[in-house]
Structure formats: C-alpha cells, structure tokens
Amino acid sequence: MTILTRTQKKIGRGINALLGKITRWFHRPKKPVSPLADRLLADALRLAEIPSPTRQEEQRVAFVLERLNSLGFVPRIDENGNVLVRIHSAELVDEPPLLLFTDLGSSRWHPLESLSRLDAAHAAGAGLGDVLGAAALLSVAETIAGGRNICCRDLLLLFAARSFDDPKTDVFYSVTEIPLNRPCAAIGIRGFTLGSIRAHTQGTYRITISFSLDTKKERESPESPDGANIVVEALLSIVQKLSRITADHSAVHFYTRRLEAGTGFGRTPSEGLLEIELESSDASRLDEIRNQVTAAAESAGEGKLLKTTVTVTSFIPVGDPAINADLLREVREIMKELRIKINEENGSDPSAFLSHQGIPALSLGMVNGQEGLLKDNIEIGSIEKGRLLLERIITQVPKEKT
Fold first, then answer.
1. pLDDT tens for residues 145-154?
2. How many angstroms separate the CA atoms of 242 and 46, rounded?
3. Which residues, including other chains, have CB under 8 Å from residue 389's CB and lie 6 or more apart?
C-alpha cells in the first residue's frame, strides 16, 4: 500500500466521521429541556389512551386523583364527577385564588389510534391534543409539590369531567357559587396552539331537531299518501325556513352541522335529524333568534304525521371583553417576554361563563402542532415553552390585588 493510498483512506475516514457528527447534530431528538416537560408529555400520553367520552370520565378522573394524591394534595369531586383541588400558597394571604381549568374528555378517542406514537421531534395520537390541558395542570401541581414557590396566592385546579357547554350542568358551580372559591381570575388550558388566546368570545347555541314518523297516526289517517317521504321533506323545509329567519339578522350566524335521514337507499326514512349552530357576539339577539328557531322547528311537523323534538345540546354565553382587558394585557406582556407569537382568536369558549359573571377569564393554547381528524401531531420541543408560559402566568397574574 503506497503512502498516497494510506493518506487517501485517512482523509476519507475523517470526512465520514465529520459527516456523521453533522448528521447527528441535525437529526438529534428535539426533546423537552426539563424533567417536568418530560413528565407532562408522559401524563398526556397515558391520559390519551384512556377511553373517552364516558358518563363522568370515571377512568380519567381516577388517573388524575391518583396523581394528585401521590403529590400530597387532597382533591374533591362534585356530584357531576368534576375534580377540584385547592393548592395553598406558601404565605397565608387573604386574597381570592387563581383558577386554572381544563376539560378531561375527548370526542376523538380511538382504541387503536389513541395508542400514541413518538419519534425524535413529534408525538402523535388520536385526541392527544385534548388531554394536554389536564397534563399541564398536573405539571403545575407537581412543580409546587416539588418545593418550588411559584404562586403568590392560592390556586384552584379544575378538571372537568362533564362538558363545559352542557346546558344540563354547571361545571363552574363550585367556584362561582361558593364565596371562598370565587377566583380573582381564571385561565383555561387547551392543547393547540401555543400563543393562541381566546378572550373576546362569542356565544353559541347548538340545537338538535329530530323528526320521527308517527306510525299510529299514519295508519289512522286516510289521507296519508303511500310511500310519501315526509321526513325528508320536513327536514328540507325546516332548513330553508331557518335560513330565512337568520338571513335577516346579520349579527347572528347560522350553520347546518348535520342533516341525516333514513337507513339506506330503497327505504323510506321514518326518522330524521338536523343539527344546527347559532353564533353571535350579541347576547340579546342570539337568544331572540334561538327562540324563533325553536318555535319554527316545533311547528314544522304539525299536520304532517310527525313527532318533533327540539333539544338544546350545547350553550356558551357571550363573553365580556371589558372584564378581560387587564388580564389580557398581562398575558400579552408575558408572551412577549417569552418570545411567543400572539394570536388572538374570536370564538366560543368556556371562559365566557366566568367573564359573564364578572370574573376575568380567557383560554390559552399549550403546544404547537396540528389537530387532525384521525390523530393529533404535537411538536415535542414546544411543550417546555408552553409549560413555562403557564408557570409565569401563575407567578405574575394578577399583578394587582382584586
């Protein structure tokens, strides 16, 4: 072997080693930069695998209770299964607490797709974004249990087992109607997207209208046409009628979310379903249109051998932007300090229940990524920044006594 050949091989090995180091540098795992962020992700992955929705999210509640108890806290469960825990500050202060709240449930759980998958930079799974709020609240509890004094006042952590917009329950009852628990401000935590804020919220009603053929009246009626598709006709008629009602009120937006009838081709439907949504930032006009829509739906089946049922399945009131002004300004300042791009969204949000009652409240996103129909994709590197944002808010908000 000549000197030239040996030199060429040495140079080649050196270049390959350098290329290997460069490749490892650009493809190194983008992990969270703290153990707390690692634990937050681990809790989210475990929560996402637990079936949901269930009646009162019993399995997810059990997981949360186990984690809180292991940290030395004493949580309380209300009659609807919601979990509330009060964390006392290191100093005894006679000030109202700060409320952090989140939803435990997910409508996108899947027995296989919710078994999350990890790679160097991302975590993916069905409904994974929905549980990041609960994991973030557990992370707050773990931070304080570890001895870090991050709060200058008591904290209330609320894990909702029932949907915030369910008109049959009041998830916030234990914090709004009990004077000792009434908060100075409230922050809602959800998954996507880091930097997004909902403070100027709109009110919404979701209404389900169902038609079913009254077979007894059909048999008794001599005028009943054989094979008449009266269910579908009633559905189409009510959609047109509701569109005309809302067309004259530009302040209220009308959406048809679902329209369904029958069980397949070749069969005349005996049942039909219509789901609609009304949205507005004008509370009085929203209620007015809701009443008109309900009256029109109830009268749609009259004289048509149909049974009509109208149900309000979801309600969120219109928020009060004036109440949220100071809180929003403080959160903006914290985001600027952390160099988080701010994106203020205008939509319906559970925080409106609180601002509607005079409590400053808004909702924040925790991580970057993408919410998908089959699975969510989370950027692991953004988890620590979202956790730091929440920690800084707890430390600094509100700056003034209320």
1. 988 878 888 9
2. 44
3. 194, 334, 335, 338, 340, 364, 366
